[in-house]
Structures are given as structure tokens and as C-alpha cells.
């Protein structure tokens, strides 16, 4: 795998050169294409479920609760799936897990179509919790291929974050168009098909798959037992609440103005801002200094930018809200890229998939809580109360990241010398 420092000549080409070298290796383009197809449903399924359930059952509270239940189930099942991937390899675990998740999505669409009781919606959506962490498996492949070059690993992490955002950018408008122009269940069914197709393409590239790490009798400790990881997970939890509440609040905002189909397009502006920022970050060398402090700074910037969306929603303009989400999204990618790199440096290699899945689990759990909170606020509180949830969650994320950075800074301080006893 050709991994080297960035070119210094021809500024335009030097921006592209890190990505050209990244994809020069055999199989890298193919597994990336499959990974992106499999990740596209991430941006589709939640929006599809909310629109599908709200339009057929007439309740945003129920739609938000079903979405939250599914994401909460992912918080329990996801790390277990990742642990199996670490132990037995991606190719042996990911496909059966994907089949179960796709069946859950099809079951959800069928229950909505045929008017099944509400509890069946919760059960069906919970079955999608077995969806493998495709982004984590892709990052694990890059970490293996660029294990001797931190600069190229930084570029790969930046690209993966941009890929996440591009999927979220394309997913919501695609889901909104399918659900509103065809039939309510079409977004969920399309997402299930893309998930299965993308995973099949991804898993065919066996040459890029990281080998299973041999373990000792006891093995490395669980990532949850690492003290340095816990404050990072709390931060990811709060960041997820920002994303989830922003999504539901925007859908309710557009629906209140009779423009439900435009909700996906407006949400795509947030993903666009984050994707552009992520791609640009990957073309420059990461700054020096402790990674945890850089992470805290990025999260604080994200919290400040989250206030822009609340101001735009208060003005009551959908185009203004789209512009505000574009600006707010530019603060998301630096925080996520830095955070994922920090996870990779914190977790042992034999537990890498599990460690990154715990980060994604915290993120999805936050999305679940944020979705439920914003859905309740949109239905029961006046005005644009739902848009108070994203900046509040962002403030909590900034507090958690800053606390972790301060704790790290204190632990790095040299111990004060003990006073020399008097020789009297």
C-alpha cells in the first residue's frame, strides 16, 4: 500500500495527491464502493421510518419512539456483532448479520403496509440492530493498510468521515422522494436492498481485510474497561443527540410549512458542509500537539456553530435554515475525524472493531435520545422548541470533551517533588 507524505508542488494536485495514493492499492476502490453503498441506508432508514410511520399513523411521537427504540437496540447488539467480527473476521460475521437486519427492515415496511399493531413496529425496527458497522470495518481496513503511515491514516479517516456524510447527504433526500412520490414503504425497502448489495461487494475484497489478531488466553481488556475511552464515549453520545434532534426537528419544521418532501434536501445541507470539511481536512497534515486537546477544541467549535440552526429556525425560513445547517455541518467533520483517530489510538488492535463500534453505538444512542426528545418537543411544545435540543446537546458534548482534555493535561503534569525533611 503506497502511503507517503503529501506532495509540495502544484498546490491543486497536492490537494488530490493524498487521495490518489490512498486508492492506488489493489481492492481499495472496490471495497470503498461497497462500503458506501452499504452505508447509504444509514441516512435513509431513520428518515424513511419517520416519514412512513408519521404519514400512515399520524404521530411524530410514535415515529420518533420507534426510531429511538431501533437505535437503542443497536446500542446493545452492535458491540456484540463487532466483537464477533474482531474474533472471527469480517467475512464470516458481516453477511449473516446483514441478512437479519435487511429482514427486519422488510418486516417493518410490511407491518406499516398491513396495519399491524404498534408493538410490531418496535420489534421489526429492533431487528435492524444487527446491521454491521460498515464504517468501522472500512476504517479497520485502512488502519491495517496504512499501519506504518500516520499521515495516510489521517487522510483515510478524513475520507471515511466524508463518506459517512456523503451517505447522509444523499440518503435523506432519496428517502424523502421515495416515500412521498412512490409509496411510504419504498424508502425502507430500498435501504434494505442497498445494504445487502453493498455488503456483498465489500466482503468480496478479501485481500484488504485485516487479519484476525491472535489473542492470549485472557486477551486484551474490553474497551469499556479503558478509562481513557469512557469520556470519549460520553462525548460521542452527546454529538449523536445533536444529529438526531436536528434531523427530527428539521422534518417537523418542514412539515409544519407543508413542505415535508423538502426536509431531506434541507438535511442534506448539513451533511454537505460536514463532507466538504472532512475532505479538506484529509489534504493537510494534522497539527501537532495532544490529540485529546485538538478533539476538545473541535467539539467546542461544533457547539458554537450549532447555535446557528436555532437562530435560523426562529426566523421561520426554510432556505435560511438550509444555509444555517450548511454552516453547522462544517463543525461536525473535524470533531468526528479527530474523535475516530483518538479511538484508534486508544483501543488495542485486537479490539479495534469493537472499540469503534462502541463509539458508533454511543453516537447512535445519542441519535435515539435526540430523536425522541426533539419529536416530543415538536409535538407538545410551541414554536421551534425542538431546535433548542441540538445546541443543548452540543454544549454537553463540549463540556465532556473539555473535561477529558483537562483531565489528560493534569495527568501529564510532573509530580511535585516531596519536601526534603529537615536534618535537624
From TrEMBL:
Keyword Transmembrane applies: yes
Domain Major facilitator superfamily (MFS) profile intervals: 224-424
Membrane topology, from the record: Multi-pass membrane protein
Chief localisation class: membrane
PROSITE patterns registered for this protein in UniProt: MFS (PS50850)
Pfam families hit by this protein: MFS_1
Gene3D superfamilies reported in the protein's UniProt record: MFS general substrate transporter like domains
Entries under InterPro entries matching the protein: MFS (IPR011701), MFS_dom (IPR020846), MFS_trans_sf (IPR036259)
Keywords (A to Z) from UniProt: Membrane, Transmembrane, Transmembrane helix
Membrane-spanning ranges: 36-54, 60-81, 93-116, 182-203, 224-243, 263-283, 295-315, 321-343, 355-378, 384-406
Localization annotation: Cell membrane
The name this protein goes by in its record: MFS transporter
Source taxonomy: Bacteria, Bacillati, Actinomycetota, Actinomycetes, Kitasatosporales
Amino acid at each position: 500500500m503506497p502511503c507517503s507524505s503529501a506532495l509540495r508542488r502544484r498546490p491543486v494536485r497536492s490537494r488530490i495527491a493524498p487521495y490518489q495514493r490512498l486508492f492506488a492499492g489493489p481492492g481499495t476502490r472496490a471495497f470503498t464502493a461497497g462500503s458506501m453503498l452499504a452505508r447509504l441506508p444509514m441516512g435513509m432508514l431513520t428518515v424513511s421510518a419517520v416519514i412512513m410511520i408519521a404519514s400512515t399513523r399520524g404521530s411524530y411521537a410514535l415515529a420518533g419512539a420507534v426510531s429511538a427504540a431501533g437505535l437503542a437496540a443497536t446500542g446493545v447488539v452492535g458491540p456484540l456483532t463487532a466483537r464477533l467480527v474482531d474474533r472471527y473476521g469480517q467475512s464470516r460475521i458481516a453477511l449473516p448479520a446483514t441478512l437479519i437486519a435487511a429482514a427486519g427492515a422488510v418486516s417493518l415496511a410490511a407491518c406499516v403496509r398491513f396495519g399491524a399493531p404498534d408493538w410490531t413496529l418496535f420489534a421489526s425496527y429492533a431487528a435492524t440492530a444487527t446491521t454491521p458497522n460498515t464504517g468501522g470495518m472500512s476504517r479497520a481496513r485502512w488502519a491495517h493498510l496504512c499501519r506504518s503511515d500516520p499521515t495516510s491514516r489521517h487522510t483515510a479517516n478524513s475520507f471515511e468521515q466524508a463518506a459517512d456524510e456523503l451517505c447522509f447527504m444523499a440518503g435523506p433526500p432519496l428517502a424523502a422522494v421515495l416515500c412521498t412520490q412512490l409509496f411510504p414503504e419504498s424508502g425502507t425497502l430500498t435501504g434494505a436492498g442497498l445494504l445487502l448489495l453493498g455488503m456483498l461487494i465489500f466482503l468480496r475484497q478479501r485481500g484488504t481485510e485485516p487479519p484476525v489478531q491472535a489473542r492470549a488466553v485472557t486477551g486484551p481488556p474490553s474497551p469499556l474497561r479503558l478509562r481513557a475511552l469512557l469520556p470519549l464515549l460520553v462525548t460521542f453520545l452527546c454529538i449523536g443527540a445533536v444529529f438526531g434532534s436536528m434531523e427530527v426537528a428539521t422534518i417537523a419544521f418542514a412539515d409544519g410549512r407543508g413542505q415535508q418532501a423538502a426536509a431531506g434536501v434541507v438535511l442534506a445541507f448539513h451533511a454537505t458542509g460536514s463532507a466538504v470539511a472532512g475532505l479538506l481536512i484529509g489534504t493537510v497534515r494534522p497539527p501537532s500537539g495532544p490529540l485529546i486537546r485538538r478533539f476538545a477544541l473541535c467539539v467546542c467549535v461544533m457547539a458554537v456553530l450549532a447555535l446557528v440552526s436555532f437562530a435560523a429556525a426562529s426566523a421561520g425560513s426554510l432556505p435560511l435554515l438550509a444555509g444555517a445547517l450548511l454552516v453547522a455541518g462544517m463543525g461536525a467533520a473535524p470533531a468526528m475525524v479527530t474523535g475516530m483517530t483518538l479511538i484508534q489510538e486508544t483501543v488495542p488492535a485486537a479490539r479495534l472493531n469493537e472499540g469503534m463500534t462502541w463509539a458508533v453505538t454511543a453516537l447512535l444512542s445519542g441519535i435515539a435520545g435526540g430523536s425522541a426528545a426533539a419529536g416530543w418537543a415538536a409535538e407538545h411544545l410551541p414554536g421551534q422548541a425542538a431546535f433548542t435540543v441540538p445546541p443543548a446537546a452540543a454544549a454537553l458534548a463540549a463540556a465532556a470533551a473539555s473535561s477529558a482534555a483537562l483531565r489528560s493535561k493534569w495527568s501529564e503534569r510532573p509530580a511535585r517533588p516531596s519536601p526534603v525533611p529537615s536534618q535537624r
